[in-house]
Amino acid sequence: MLKVNEIFYSIQGESTYAGERSVFVRLTGCNLRCTYCDTEYAFYDGEEFSVDAIIEKVKSYNCNLVEITGGEPLLQKEVYKLMNRLCDSGFTVLLETSGSLSIENVDERVINILDFKTPSSKMEKKNDFKNVDFLKPIDEVKFVIGSRLDYDWSKRILKKYRLNKKVKILFSSVFGKIEDEELVNWILKDNLNVRYQLQMQKYIWEPDKHGV
């Protein structure tokens, strides 16, 4: 059984899949408390679902792209069975996870979107950079940036772990904390080989709207 906060059908707001139709399975629980978290409602609230029930619900939307998110989905051990079963059923599976828990045992068919925590999150010390060794070319690494300090830190991490040679890199701004134009200008000035992304869902719907 898995404790599920919500299952919904929307479009991808982030990653290289931004704009595509997707089913989201948001699991309950998180081991981090980031200052800029926008899904605190997923820390505790949820209902118990079997893996079969989740897959049945996902199939009802007739959409091939599925994202497993949270909270922190890897806290629940049954999530590995869920991801394996979804891959076996032919779905393209994205896993949105922080850099705090190991992705070593995640099915190789799953696309990891690894969110290393920047200093302004106050969770920087929770990053497990051993995860870099388990990244695959299909995976993506995300940095959420709320200050110049975050930006400079992210650049150092990119260089230290040679991330540009391993995966696609995503930079996004903390919504309402830093201007998009400012961060984009830093990227352009430094000729940084990253993909800038907006949280599209916050521009399409109200920023605090759930289930989108």
Provide a concise account of the structure shown.
The protein is of the alpha/beta class and 212 residues long.
Give the helices and strands, then pairings.
Layout: E1 2-11, E2 21-27, E3 47-49, H1 51-59, E4 65-69, H2 79-88, E5 92-98, E6 111-116, E7 140-145, H3 148-160, E8 168-173, H4 180-189, E9 195-196, H5 201-204
Parallel strand pairs: 2-4, 4-5, 5-6, 6-7, 7-8, 8-9
Antiparallel strand pairs: 1-2, 1-3
**Count, helices:** 5
Structural Rg: 16 Å
- Proper CATH architecture: Alpha-Beta Barrel
Instruction: Estimate what percentage of residues fall within beta strands.
Output: 15-25%
Element-level helix/strand string: EEEHEHEEEHEHEH
Query: Could you name the CATH homologous superfamily?
Result: Aldolase class I
Strand segment count = 9
Strand-pairing-aware structural class: alpha/beta
Q: Could you name the ranges where pLDDT drops below 50 across 5 or more consecutive residues?
A: none
- Tell me the distance between the termini: 24 Å
What fold name goes in the CATH topology slot?
Answer: TIM Barrel
| The first-level CATH class name | Alpha Beta
Describe the structure.
- This protein has 212 residues and is α/β, with parallel strands linked by helices.
- It has one domain (2-204): Aldolase class I (TIM Barrel), CATH 3.20.20.70.
- The chain contains 5 helices and 9 strands.
- It has a 9-stranded mixed sheet.
- Helix 2 links the parallel strand 4 (65-69) and strand 5.
- Helix 1 packs across helix 2 (79-88).
- The radius of gyration is 16 Å and the shape is globular.
- The two termini are 24 Å apart.
- The model has no long low-confidence stretch (mean pLDDT 94).
